[in-house]
Amino acid sequence: MNEMAQLQKRRLALYGWMLAAPALALMSLFAFYPAIATLWHSLFSRGTSRRPSVFAGLDNYGDLFADPTFWTVASNNLIYAGITIPVSIFFALAMALWANAHIPARSFVRSAYFTPTILPMIAAANLWLFFYTPDLGVIDQITGFFGAEPTNWLGQPETALASIIIVTIWKESGFFMIFYLAALQTIPPDLREAAHIEGAGRWTYTRRILLPLLMPTTIFVFVNAMINSVKLIDHLFILTKGGPNNASKLILYWIWEMAFAYFDSPHAAAMTILVLLTLGIVAVIQFRLVEKRTHYR
Questions:
Q1: Which InterPro entries match (predicted)?
Q2: H/E element, 66
């Protein structure tokens, strides 16, 4: 009997590995191998036709930490992520609650909220470029009615990053709303009726029942928003190109700039590894702390 049981376990294990093999192959090809190759490349110096690349250890990482641009870009990305993530999630939840309510023209409201999401990134950036155009743009035309002077929203350090943040929130809120809307439609209406019978108000129902049930969706949306916060590049190409004076330059754009504009792929690889490490640390903290307070149904 023990031999039969062991054989059965081996068959189940083999069956499990066979099921996981396609996913493991794809992950190895498109995730694990590129990450390892990038790490290895970051340990070598920049090579030229006259001076070949040599092993440099952690020198590329030291160069990044000593570069003032690194700290400027890192602080820009922290500000960008610190604003876009919570604000996009807040607006997405608010829009989902409204779109899920019994209101007139509910289908139109849902479509209007989701429309920015289906626009291509380049098209959306060009649309906002028209909005931000000094003196001729829609924003300056509106503020001009109130006597405000024309503003170069994308051309001055004080407003360039904020302008990019507004575009991102406008673009992502509708996308995240879809996930909240789908989650809201899975919550039984009996819970609201039971809470109403118990005397719970709308705020109490939202805080004590609705938000905890939406926590798995919030975690999923948060992870996506965090990833999006370090991979923005399309809007920057059209709107600011990281300027003025690096005021709106973000991590992925700087990596592209180092690799393909300055042909400094080792430092770009080192920056990529730092981004992966940061995302990994945040993911571990999230799943260790937040997951414990999450209720799955």
A1: ABC_transporter_permease (IPR051393), MetI-like (IPR000515), MetI-like_sf (IPR035906)
A2: helix 59-66
Beta bridge partners of 44: 55
Domain ranges of the chain: 1-42, 54-291
Among 214, 219, 212, 217, residue whose Cα is nearest residue 283: 219
State how far the Cα of 106 lies from the Cα of 112, in Å rounded to an integer. Answer: 10
Query: What is the Cα–Cα distance from 205 to 111, expressed in whole angstroms?
Result: 27
Q: Which two tokens stand for residue 12?
A: 């189940």
d(Cα 185, Cα 178) in Å, to the nearest integer?
11
Q: CATH fold of 54-291, please?
A: MetI-like fold (1.10.3720)
Cβ neighbours around 249 below 10 Å, total = 23
DSSP 67: -
| DSSP code, position 244 | S
Q: How large is the greatest C-alpha to C-alpha distance in the chain, in angstroms?
A: 89
C-beta of residue 168 within 8 angstroms of C-beta of residue 235: yes
Q: Which residues of 93-110 are buried (b: 16+ CB within 10 A; e: fewer)?
A: bebbbebbeeeeeeeebb
Q: What is the pTM of this model?
A: 0.88
Taking a C-beta distance cutoff of 8 angstroms, is the pair 267, 287 a contact? no
Local confidence pLDDT in tens for the 297 residues of the chain: 577 778 888 888 888 889 889 999 999 999 899 999 999 999 999 887 788 888 888 999 999 999 999 999 999 999 999 999 999 999 999 999 888 887 787 788 888 888 888 888 888 899 999 999 988 888 988 888 888 888 899 999 999 999 999 999 999 999 999 999 999 888 888 887 787 777 777 788 888 888 888 988 998 899 899 989 998 888 898 999 998 899 999 999 999 999 999 889 999 999 999 999 998 888 888 777 766 555 555
